[in-house]
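Quick illustration, no need to memorize.
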Amino acid sequence: MDRKSRSSRSHEESSEEISLWKQICSSLLKLEGIQKEEETVINSINKIQLSVDIEKGITGLIQQKLKENYKRGIELSSNESKIIQDIIEKLSVLIALRENEQDQKRKKRKLELIDTNSSNNNNSNSSTTSNSSSNNNNNNIHTAEPIHILPKGTTVAAKQPKEKDKNEEWILAVVIQYHADKNKYQVEDVDQDDYGEKQRYMLSPRYVIPVRSSEEARSLPEIPAQKDVLALYPGTTCFYKAIVIAPPSKSKEIKNYRVQFEDDNDEVKYVMPEHVLEMPK
């Protein structure tokens, strides 16, 4: 898949990786303790067997000691197997989260945090309402305005104009202003271009999808498996078509969506709930 180089490693993803790594280290310490105890049990069994008098045979006391040691050995072996499996699963998740740093086809550029200003949001809403009323009174040549105007500072997925990008990618952007007279949003790309500038676009509301906060996204009904979605590709600020493999509730450790992107070698990747959107019609 030919993807534009855009960086998007979030603080939340980094925190998840750190948490996972700590859990893995803790499990490895437990595993080391179990293996040491297993060694002690094996040595104990060997000593008991060497102490057996072949002529007298195995006494009741020796049988009891062997039984206890074998039972403990089986318990330790079972626990060892479970811990190893848990470590493998956690490592698989960690590798999936880190894959974005190993992709040499993408440039690595820093994703700047979006600072929303709530006071400006109120001013933007007031201005929008005024412009909307004026526009409706003058003429009716424009298409209907969106039911809910997205305020300034709203994080969105925005589809770039065709003349600006031949692939018409959906990018991570922020709303600058809604122009009621044109029924279009002015949005700014969160990523910088090769000259250190952030591009701005005028887009129809149908090409602007709000991105929920983490709390809002997790409170919404989950998107079921096998559903087509628009998801933020790990390590980028671009959204691409993907299919849900499993929703967050089906993930054991990391409560993110497991998705499979189109034309991505059938690889399964983890994407945070707020970065998985319903596929636009």
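The chain is about 40% helix and 20% strand.
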